[in-house]
Structure formats: C-alpha cells, structure tokens
Amino acid sequence: MTSPVTREVPVTVRVFAQRFSSTPRGARLARRLAVLQLDRWGVPYDSETSETAALLVAELAANAVTHGRVPGRDCELTLSYTPGLLLRIDVSDTRDERRPAPAAPGPLDEGGRGLLLVEVLASRWAVLDRVPVGKTVRAELDLSPGSARTRPGGS
C-alpha cells in the first residue's frame, strides 16, 4: 500500500538584517531601510503594512538607542517576511538589564506611550534574550487575510 502524496506550497521567507549606530540618526536610518526593503519585496510604500512597519521600527529603534544604548555598541534591525503570512520585526541592543514594559503614562507626561503604540499596532510583541549579550524586542504583524491580532497575554 502506498501513501498518498500531498503537495505543500513552498514558503519563501525573506530576511534582511542591518546594524546601525545607537544614535537618533541610526534609528531614522533603520526606519528608512525597513520601508525600502519592504518595497523591494513587493510591499508598497503607501500600503498599510509598510506604514505600520515603519511606525513599529521607528518606535523600537528609538527605544533601543535611547534606553538600550551602550557606548561603542551598535543596534541591529532584522526583518523576516513571509509574503501573505507574517512580518517579524526584531530590534536588538546590547543592554540586557533594562527590559521594556508598557506603562500607563500620566496625562501630562511627555513620553512613555511608545510601547502602548507597539501593543496596539502589532499582532504580538515580546522581549527576548539575545545571545551572547543584550535583548531583542520583537513585533509581529499577521498578514494572512482574516487573521485576528492578539495582544501579549492572549487578549
């Protein structure tokens, strides 16, 4: 008896990784490179996916250069794109003792809303250990039609 042959659709995952300086200029460059790379992969500049990714990269990169900066050490942006399924954005820095967590800022606070924005825009996000040193903040966007976005904790 022979087993039935099942054909699976091949999945191509595209990956882009780039280090950038731990400066505001480096964070801006990370955002610009992200939308440029997405456009090269067929995600147009003015699409919802591109605009959401730009906001997520901008926030995560700004946090990395502001709160995760170690003088003389770079940050890193990694994009993993599976067309029609998932866009994963990883921003890594070399400071592991400062872990980001969303907090409710007061009405007069000038900052502290960035991770709330990430929580709303991303399907999921997490903070991961980076080997050998540091941390990676990951945000994922589900791209499949009808996919429900979930927040950390499954809500």
Provide a concise account of the structure shown.
By secondary structure, the chain is α+β, with helices and mostly antiparallel strands. Helices cover 29% and strands 24% of the residues. The longest helix has 20 residues, at 48-67.
Keyword list:
single chain, 155 residues, alpha+beta, five-stranded antiparallel beta sheet, 29% helix
Description:
This protein is an alpha+beta fold. Helix content is 29%, strand content 24%. It has 3 helices and 5 strands; from the N terminus they run βααββαββ. It has a 5-stranded antiparallel sheet, covered by helices on one side. α1 packs antiparallel against α2 and α2 runs antiparallel to α3. It is globular and about 65 Å long. The N and C termini lie far apart (47 Å).
**Which percent range describes the beta-strand content?**
15-25%
N- to C-terminal distance: 47 Å
Helix/strand-derived class? alpha+beta
Q: Helix content range of the residues, please?
A: 25-40%
Radius of gyration: 17 Å
The major sheet is characterized as: 5 strands, antiparallel
- Give me the number of helical elements: 3
Name the average pLDDT: 84
Shape: globular
Number of strands: 5
What order do the strands of the largest sheet run in, or round the barrel if closed?
1-2-3-5-4
Uncertain parts: 149-155
Order of helices and strands: EHHEEHEE
